[in-house]
Amino acid sequence: MTNDEIPRRGLWEWIQGCSGTLQDKRNSRRFTLWCLAWALAYVGAHWILKADLELATALVWLLVSTPIMLMIGAVFSYMHFLRNADELLQKIQIQGLAMGFGAAVVFVTGYQLLEAGAGASEMQTDHLLIVMMFSWVAGQLHGLWRYR
Amino acid sequence: MALPVKNRLRVLRAEREWSQASLAEQLNVSRQTINAIETGKYDPGLPLAFKISRLFAQQIEEIFDPGD
User: A98, A125, B27, B54: least buried by Cβ within 10 Å?
Assistant: First the structure.
């Protein structure tokens, strides 16, 4: 059978179907779990540290270092995923990373000029992270669409 | 810009009555990769080209044509 006709699928099914081999899906899930753990730890630590509490120094260090360690784990997990990924998926991921990095450079340099010349308020690092994340995902979606 | 390499993957696969998913499984790549190669949107790297050549028991040049 040569069932090339692919049935119509929803966006999420389409993304899932384009996300590589079973091993890639497993590695991708592992990376997602690291990211979720980091996000929870980051939000939790941020909330506690901002809430004017009398915290022991050791606890402050723990709150600061936990999200950092989790993000380092996520980065290693992503590198593992990328090294072992299906070759087309590698290409798509690299395109996403290039778009994320490029958008960050454009955003930072553009915003610095706005700060200098148009009196824009000081740049928040959170905004830079959001720009990077969204353009990384947009780059991946663009790659998935291009090689669909 | 490099021109895409033409290939006979779809024909070879159809001769064996394999689905894209089944070929992808045998080559340990995604179905999307097979589809992108067949439609000329993506040219495989050497390791995958050798795998394909071995699987179909043909020389790489018999499957992929640089078109020059």
Answer: A125
